[in-house]
Design brief:
By secondary structure, this protein is of the alpha/beta class. Helices cover 22% and strands 32% of the residues. Strands 2, 3, 4, 5, 7, 8, 9, 10, 11, 12, 13, 14 and 15 form a 13-stranded mixed β-sheet that branches.
């Protein structure tokens, strides 16, 4: 582990290297004050005319030109190779919410690694934003303000149980696990309330539900300890 590098009382945007839709990135940049890049995420930011307030990672992917453009005091090298740049950046940030973009596209192994990091840092409120979906780790209790018919997928990263209201197919009494039963492509009959009995359950929603998910995470009572 390492010390906190960036701290804020408002949501922070964390940008990864799986470059996606520039318009989506620019829209998110309009919503936040503080922007952090995980390694080559800084190149994507620079390509749309913005430099990060902090660059964090092992810095083996960011271009030399981008690194040189960032003030040296804003560049934070974490050289260990036992974690991803997403992990390095996430554990270095303190904020009520971290919005991550540039982690759900690109290589499938990178996407799977990002899901693992979400599960590992179950004590953080994090929303990963893709072009079609948003993903978050569920706290012990949450109410999602979704409309009837909204796709609500639950994906367990470990064995976990819980209860639900508002899901067309309730999860009460079911053990969800990555090697057996998962909860993908469920749907809402109205607002969905979930109580989860342990860490490790991810929720996947359409990207149109991003702001509602963010607000629900910030309103939720409590977080799981980090795994």
């Amino acid at each position: 582990m390492n010390d906190i590098i960036v701290s804020a009382q408002e949501p922070i945007l964390l940008v990864g290297g799986a470059h996606g839709d520039n318009a989506q990135l620019l829209s998110l940049l309009d919503e936040v004050k503080t922007v952090v890049a995980a390694d080559s995420g800084a190149d994507w930011l620079r390509s749309v005319g913005r430099l990060p307030d902090a660059l964090i990672g092992d810095l083996d992917s960011v271009s030399a030109a981008t690194r040189a453009a960032i003030p040296s005091q804003s560049v934070h090298l974490i050289s260990e190779q036992d974690s991803t740049d997403f992990d390095k950046a996430l554990r270095s940030i303190s904020a009520p919410l971290i919005i991550g973009i540039g982690f759900l596209g690109g290589q499938v192994d990178h996407l799977l690694a990002a899901m693992t990091v979400l599960a590992r840092h179950s004590d953080r409120a994090v929303v990963l934003v893709g072009e079609k979906d948003v993903v978050a780790h569920l706290p012990p209790q949450i109410t999602l303000p979704v409309s009837p018919g909204t796709r609500v997928s639950l994906f367990p990263m470990r064995s976990v149980m819980g209860t639900s209201t508002g899901l067309h197919w309730p999860i009460d009494g079911l053990e969800l696990s990555p090697g057996a039963r998962v909860g993908t492509s469920n749907r809402a009959d109205g607002p969905v309330s979930l109580t989860v009995y342990g860490p490790g359950l991810l929720v996947i929603l359409p990207v149109s539900e991003r702001r509602g998910l963010e607000q629900a995470l910030m309103r939720s009572d409590g977080r799981w300890p980090a795994l």
